[in-house]
Amino acid sequence: xxxxxxxxxxxxxxxxxxxxxxxxxxxxxxxxxxxxxxxxxxxxxxxxxxxxxxxxxxxxxxxxxxxxxxxxxxxxxxxxxxxxxxxxxxxxxxxxxxxxxxxxxxxxxxxxxxxxxxxxxxxxxxxxxxxxxxxxxxxxxxxxxxxxxxxxxxxxxxxxxxxxxxxxxxxxxxxxxxxxxxxxxxxxxxxxxxxxxxxxxxxxxxxxxxxxxxxxxxxxxxxxxxxxxxxxxxxxxxxxxxxxxxxxxxxxxxxxxxxxxxxxxxxxxxxxxxxxxxxxxxxxxxxxxxx
Length: 291
Hints:
- By secondary structure, the protein is an alpha/beta fold.
- The chain has twelve helices and ten strands.
């Protein structure tokens, strides 16, 4: 049976919730996640209008297999409480909250979402220096809350650190790997931060492959042109699937029943590899089913 961790989240596209044309186009794009943004992409004088538009968009539906999240303004801003109340009463799959710094922040958001449907998820941006040093404690809130996914906010983190955000992302590599490890330790999905380059897709693909290497489930995006290359990078390749199917078949042989390690294609293969193989196939099947 498919699990939440098998759900494809290769591409998560941010859209200003105030842009009706962009939302309409998102319903036709092959992204796995649509994030209707009330925060950075919306001017202060448009916040209330964007909030109403986001709720109306999820009410209207038409997003198909895509998960739809609404990114709220921070709980301590003048718009935060109204955003959270509106999202809690909406049909969104998730609320994405910015600048989480400590486990107490998760607790405050959890309380604000008390009346939301049980299935509504809490997603959190990891984008502050404070959060970097509280990754383990924040992730540990997952079992007792709605928290199910993190998204790296490398632009905001670069701003706080006064660091240069170059394509190689050298200053941020330790934080990216630590965030993935903390997320995995507590069963969280995790998406890489945005790439600001949407004209040169070769640069984007290089950064996406770096995220794949680190173990991210997918990447957040700022432009529709990034969706297809992102999906390609974060989808199991034919070579991956050939390996996975060979491992599954080998462990399924009667002579290998009960064994913890066998030889597959000349390489020592353990039960942990069987687990990886099963997940790869499950993800590929869900991608195919989504069309």
